[in-house]
């Protein structure tokens, strides 16, 4: 498998990223909570390179891993800041791992560009999924935790992940991109499946704790 960490190719990378082992568990916010609905603030220049920012990234990796996610935005752990982490397969034989602060999505010229409709879910809408149109290519520009410029490029499912996470930081959920009927169906799915999702998360957290006493 081709692996890229912070957009750069690497030979190998652990199945469980090292950030997971350093993180402290944080609760994942759910649809209906106000923090998910307001645009997040920029990471300030004085915050780059700090232990606090590095710890937040570690915590987000742990929460994402426990919840079996491909990406997680900071407001999904209740922190109002423009930052997301990812550990995502692209569907083309590649894996992408990393984080990006103050991301800006390059908006493609949609004229003549085919949107790909595929199933999408969200850790903040536990148990639900729906078909959402996204572009098959995405570029996000921002900074790493130390303030170095960063460009992350994605194709296929990873492009979908990048667009989904940037949406989060603007206060947008994938539910907002659905028809009224599809949105109601997704919320019904969540109601039916939420308890089972949380049971699995608790079990994964317990197994992880047992493996790393």
What would your notes on this structure say?
The strands form 2 sheets. Strands 1, 2, 3, 4, 5, 8 and 9 form a 7-stranded mixed β-sheet that branches. The protein has helices at 18-22, 51-66, 156-169, 180-211, and strands at residues 2-5, 8-10, 71-73, 83-89, 94-105, 115-121, 129-135, 137-143, 149-155. The protein is of the alpha+beta class and 213 residues long. The protein has one domain (2-211): Peptide Deformylase, CATH 3.90.45.10. The two termini are 30 Å apart.
Brief account:
By secondary structure, the chain is an alpha+beta fold. It has four helices and nine strands, in the order E-E-H-H-E-E-E-E-E-E-E-H-H.
Principal-axes geometry comes out as globular
**Uncertain ranges:** none
Helicity level, as a percent range?
Answer: 25-40%
Distance between the termini: 30 Å
CATH architecture descriptor name: Alpha-Beta Complex
Total tally of structural domains: 1
**Order of SSEs:** EEHHEEEEEEEHH
Number of strands: 9
The biggest beta sheet, please?
A: 7 strands, mixed
The name of the CATH topology is Peptide Deformylase
Within CATH, the superfamily carries the name Peptide deformylase
Proportion of beta-strand residues: 25-35%
